[in-house]
Predict the 3D structure of the following.
Amino acid sequence: MRLFHQWRAMRFILPCVFVLSALFLASCDSGSSTTGGTGPTATNGGKGCAKVGILLPDTTSSPRWETKDHPLLVQVIKAAIPNVHIDYDNAQNNSATQLTQAETDLANGDCILVVAATDSVAASAIVAKARLQNVPVIAYDRLIQSKDLSYYVSFDNVKVGQLQAQYIASHYLAYQRTPASDNTGIGTLKGSGANGTPTPNIMMISGSQTDNNALLFSLGAHNVLDPLFAASKLKNAYETFTPSWDINTAQAEAEAALADQQNNIQVAYVANDGMAGGVIAALKAAGLDGKVLVTGQDATAAGIHAILMGEQNMTVYKPSAQEAQSTGALIKNIYLGLSTISLTNGETVTTYNGGSIPSILDTPIAVDSGNIQTTVIADKYLTKTDVCQGIAAGTDGVC
């Protein structure tokens, strides 16, 4: 039996990784000023800024980056700054590319940067270079591990993992199965509280370790699930992190878990909807689609469709419009030279090296078949056309 406890290992390894990465980055940028804004191209801390750079991480981990965040950020920045010039780039999951894009923006006079980091540690180099020119950096959605970061706008990402795990804790007993008589490991579904059934097994497919959010999701999930593991009510049979949030890798990980456990998996904690699609493909190949509790995140059209199909059980909706609005409000105050305290309300998030970053953390929402209509559809985040193809009319009051 293969059992991965990477989060526990990461609790000890991460500080070392962060320190070594920071030392490496510092050595690459030894000319950095500790006070900032001393060079001839230094800006006025964003006040009066008319050029803003947006740097997003990829187009593969979730469709939200291009379909939601990109246009929403452009919209709110244009509303915040009259006649603003916006430089937009996507790093396609390459941290070196993202650094180069940031350097180009700074060279072109961009005086506020909004960065959704490809790598939470590597992006500290962007903050260091921006600080040389007194350019504020807003970490968007993903924390950048730099004590010099100006602001952080995201969701309560520990809460995201907690919402996923709380759904599991409330529903996993319905996925107990009697041992299979045909050696497939599939067996018969049993209802909640069935007597004589074995402890349900869970496989945990988390996101990329270079994304600080993935670590926070995992932490939140373990906060809820570890007591169940300790009480032998649920068994952590397989756990791994998934480089680059890659869907094909997630499918391969699920296939490995199913093979290792002889298909004896009742719950799949999956960190986002994209990877859940890969896990569902693995479950289908094993004849287990609809027989395993599957979580997700991002409330994508594919994820909601899978919920309506009965292949996925829940997702976490993070309203991108709210996240973008919070970012736009920050940018407006920076541009006007106003205090941002009323926007952050004293909220801070700590970086590994002791930084205390003024933050806006919006609230995530758990979504399952019972509240699709009143959340993502009501908010016009998705439409019925987006999610109802091939779904019977009347399903869950949505289609």
Remarks:
- Residues 217 and 236 are 16 Å apart (CA to CA).
